[in-house]
Design goal:
- It is built from 9 helices and 4 strands, in the order H-E-E-H-H-H-H-E-E-H-H-H-H.
- By secondary structure, it is of the alpha+beta class.
- A two-stranded antiparallel sheet has the order 1-2.
- InterPro entries: Ankyrin_rpt, Ankyrin_rpt-contain_sf.
- Pfam families: Ank_2.
């Protein structure tokens, strides 16, 4: 709050090096707060006009994906209600495959087994259920391979 009150740029990107994967990543305050579950910070940044859909190219590509991947349902709702693009395919690091893939927030919900978040995303107008991407090629296959039967059922009920 203090930094924002002193004119800090809410959209500034930081860069850090991951020695394990030997690559640089970008991050911003919104993605960090979303991924960390800091709802009040997310609200403050949204009030200050942060770019909600900026791609960061890190473990989760954007703020929505960070919130989805870490199971922060209230932050997912907040971001969606403020216009986060539910179909953007950002970078996602699949630790089991040691690879980065372009995937949607719905794919991440399926891979991580976050059923309530999958329901929330599927309820959004314009959600694209059959986007291709990721190690499993699409969201339905990701849910099936990860053993998330309820999410697979939801996907089938919604056109997968």
């Amino acid at each position: 709050k203090l930094l924002l009150g002193r004119g800090a740029n809410v959209n500034v990107q930081s860069r850090w090096y991951d020695s394990k994967h030997k690559r640089f990543y970008e991050n911003n305050a919104l993605r960090a707060a979303s991924r960390g579950g800091h709802e009040q910070v997310v609200k403050l940044l949204l009030e200050k006009g942060v770019d909600i859909n900026v791609e960061n190219g890190g473990y989760y590509g954007n703020a929505l994906q960070g919130a989805v991947g870490n199971g922060h349902e209230d932050i997912v709702k907040l971001l969606v209600n403020h216009g986060a693009d539910i179909n953007t395919q950002g970078k996602y690091y699949d630790a089991g495959q040691s690879e980065f893939y372009n995937v949607s927030a719905l794919y991440i919900a399926a891979v991580e087994g976050h059923e309530q978040i999958a329901k929330l995303l599927l309820a959004q107008e314009g959600i694209k259920v059959n986007l291709r991407g990721g190690f499993y090629d699409n969201t339905l296959q990701a849910a099936v391979f990860r053993g998330c039967r309820q999410i697979a059922k939801l996907l089938l009920e919604n056109g997968a």
